[in-house]
Amino acid sequence: MLPLVSLYLVILYSYEIKIFLTSHWPVGWVAYLVLGFSIAGILSLLLIWPVRNDEGHGWIKIFTRFFYFALFPLILLLFLAIYKRISQYGITEHRYFVLLLALWLVFIATYFLISKAKSIKLIPVSLCLIAFLSSFGPWGAFSVSKHSQLKHFEEILNANKMLDKSNHFVSGKEMKWDDRLEVSSLVKYLVDMHGYDVMQPYSHQNLDSLLKKTSDKSSRYSYEHTEKILGLMGLKYLGRWDTKETDNTEQIELRTEGNESVIDVKGYDEYISSIGLNAYYGFKGDTTVFNSFKVSRDSMKVSLNTGKSMLKFMFDKSEPITMNLLSSIDSMLNEKYPDNNEVPEAQMTFTLSNNKEEIKLRITNITIQKKDKKRWVTAVNANVLVRWK
User: Fold this and answer.
1) What is the pLDDT of residue 141?
2) HSE on the CB side for 213, CA within 13 Å?
3) Stated pTM of the model
């Protein structure tokens, strides 16, 4: 492992020099490169530690000292990376632990450079102590992260004059795109990690009453909670894939009831459990995505064209089968379904054919984007049954 660690060190040093020369800071993940190198290096040294005093292995002590000395410039890079993220977006659990590990690396590297005892027991003992102390109390990861993100949330809302004197939401205010995106991310994080209760102090309305239909269900409903809380502020939820070009774009998702039900395959020769086609980047309606399958008598390629909302099944030995998804589900788009847009299975099942194949398409979920009067399909997942004529 040591040659690999040494090569990794050369790569990281080259990368660090490039960052400082170009002043182009990577988004978020440089900390994981440094932590990955540190963990690999320390593990390597632990594995060879028992033979460090054996004859012919004196180089281990030299390499150990070199390794810990070489860590300090990378630890500096790690501190700069995490400081940049925290100063912009506050502390989350991930950033808390990255900062904690950076401080731990300083302690371990300093200890092995200046201590004469050099007991490797300090490594697991100190890690266990850190894990224990960071798991509870006002200094713990979850408490610190929650307060940091709530503070960041208040700062953005105050800057946009969206909190009144009693610190409650004020709706109807204009907010810049970047702030709207950041507030959406903050509320989603707080609801996911700490529950929607943390938002109650900011709302005149009782959130238990507002969210009572889904409050007893799993975390998959946190998206709906987030949307409704943002709605109290007069804001629309913006996801990580949203851009300024897709602003004011409504997303509609339909799901089939009983997705986990048994599939009746009687009368068909092939069963494909999922033809997942996802084109979330295709907001302009000009994207085509593909998926290929090897079936017994032919090969089958499935494509989704977002611009035309056209689903196409293509075979090597026969004519393609096409289906306009919007035309097929148009009647469902304006209906209100009582349970999270779940549509009866019969309405989401379609039979298609050409001169050689018959396809039974059972859509499990479909995502439609809507802007102004235009609609287009950006994702579809379905079970497919094929019968050879």
Assistant:
1) 92
2) 7
3) 0.65
